[in-house]
Every structure is written in C-alpha cells, then in structure tokens.
From TrEMBL:
Residues 15-69 form the HTH cro/C1-type domain. This is Transcriptional regulator with XRE-family HTH domain. One of its GO terms (molecular function) is DNA binding. SMART domains: HTH_XRE.
Length: 258
C-alpha cells in the first residue's frame, strides 16, 4: 500500500504540488478559480472530493498542461479528458495531413515537427541543410535540442553559439518549470552539461534571437525560428506537437536555400 500511495498520490496532494510550483497561496488559487479558499483547503486535505468541472477549473487556474490535467482527473477518480493516440493511428489522419502540408509549405526552408520532449517526428526536405555534418549517433533517436547544441551536432557550425545556447536553455528551463516534466528536467540537465559558451550570455539587443550557421564556401546562413501548435487539440499527441520552421533572416540566406 505504501508503494501504491507513492506512485499514485491523491488529488489534493497533486493539486498542492501544482499550487506550490506556481507559487500561489490557497487564497490566490481560490481567487483565480473563483471558488472559496475554504473549499480549496478542503480539497487539498481530502475533506472534499472535487467534481470534474472543479478539477478542470483548478487546472486552468494553475495552467496545468494537458497530460497533467489527465493525471489530476485520474487522481480524483474521474475519466481523463484527453485521449492519446500515436501519430500513425488511423484516427490521427487529419493531424498527419495537416503536419505534412505545413512541412511541405515551408520548403525549401527547414521545418520539423517535434513532440513535447523535442523528439523529431517528421522533417521536410529543407531540413537536410541543417543536418549536414550531424553525427550518426544523434540521428538514431533524433532530438532537436540535442542535435542543436551537442558538440557532435550543429554546435560547431553555429556562429553565435553562446547566444543561441542561452536562448535554447532558457526556453527549455521555462518548459520544464511549467510542465513539471521529469523528461524535460533530465534533458535540461544534459543540455546544460554541453560546452559552448556562457549559458548566461545576454541577448544582443535584436528583435529576436537568430540562428547564425556556417554554410558552404564561408557563407553565413541566418535564420529566425517560428513555432506552430494545434490550439484546439483534444488528443495528447496533437496537443504536445509543435512545428518549428527556420525562416531566412536575409536575402542571401533565402537565395542559398533556393
């Protein structure tokens, strides 16, 4: 019984963990969710059982990601709201088609689809330029952030490595804090261990952080990244899928890609 309790904490314990992660008091959460502080206290201590609507209201107030919302519902003895199917499931054909169309639309500019852990799911033809020289062992189970900053990946070709590393680590650190994901925390620790300049390097004052990459014949390819997500997904695979495109920041980069 002790092991089961450790693996499956009750709803009140999970909710308190999320509240503390968001640095909210019970009163703060009550005000945000438009419920009484007394009711929040009763739920956390197990003196009151939350309804499905209450779980979802509290989860929204705490900005709990979709996967963790399912965990909260299950901990409360309720059915999860999000399904989870693999991308190749027949029921995911619309999502697959949408991803394929987006990737194709960005050609010849690099574009890739990744899951919540930044594992690469699909790429377009233009991505081949980014992957030139990446070691084979990084392509066995490709992870976009690992490929980006690993010494055997893109790192030797990135002109502004300290700045790009600072951007990538900051982004992953925020994602790990928001999601509470052990997978993200593990990846963050790995990425932070890579060499490549001061991770606290400041931005250079531009509008966005560019990716400056060594190209052929000493040319410098400069990219700006954009991210697309499914805003109304009711499946975890779709909800956690991101499409990242690398657009040319200048005409010389665009011409080189064409």
């Amino acid at each position: 019984m002790t092991t089961a309790h450790a693996q499956n904490p009750p709803f009140g314990t999970l909710m308190r963990t999320w509240r503390q992660r968001r640095r909210l008091s019970q009163l703060d959460l009550a005000l945000e969710a438009d419920v009484s502080a007394r009711h929040v206290s009763f739920i956390e201590t197990g003196r009151a059982a939350p309804s499905r609507s209450m779980v979802l209201k509290l989860a929204a107030a705490l900005d709990v990601p979709a996967r963790e919302q399912n965990q909260l519902l299950l901990a409360a003895g309720l059915a999860p709201v999000y399904t989870e199917r693999t991308l190749d499931d027949p029921g995911m054909s619309a999502v697959r088609s949408g991803v394929k169309r987006v990737l194709a639309a960005y050609n010849p500019f690099p574009c890739l689809a990744v899951d919540r852990g930044w594992n690469v799911l699909q790429v377009n033809a233009g991505t081949a330029l980014l992957l030139e020289g990446v070691a084979a062992h990084l392509m066995e189970r490709p992870n976009a952030l690992r490929i980006s900053l690993h010494p055997d990946g893109l790192a030797p070709r990135i002109r502004n490595l300290a700045q790009w590393r600072h951007h990538v680590i900051g982004r992953l650190r925020r994602e790990a804090a928001v999601s509470g994901s052990a997978e993200s925390a593990t990846l963050l620790a790995e990425i932070e261990s890579y060499p490549g300049g001061d991770s606290g390097a400041p931005d250079l004052g531009g509008v966005v952080v560019p990716l400056e990459l060594d190209g052929d014949d000493g040319a410098v390819l400069t990219f700006l990244s954009t991210v697309t997500t499914f805003g109304t997904a009711l499946d975890l695979t779709a909800a956690e899928l991101s499409i990242e495109a690398f657009l040319p920041a200048d005409e010389s980069t665009a011409e080189a890609l064409r």
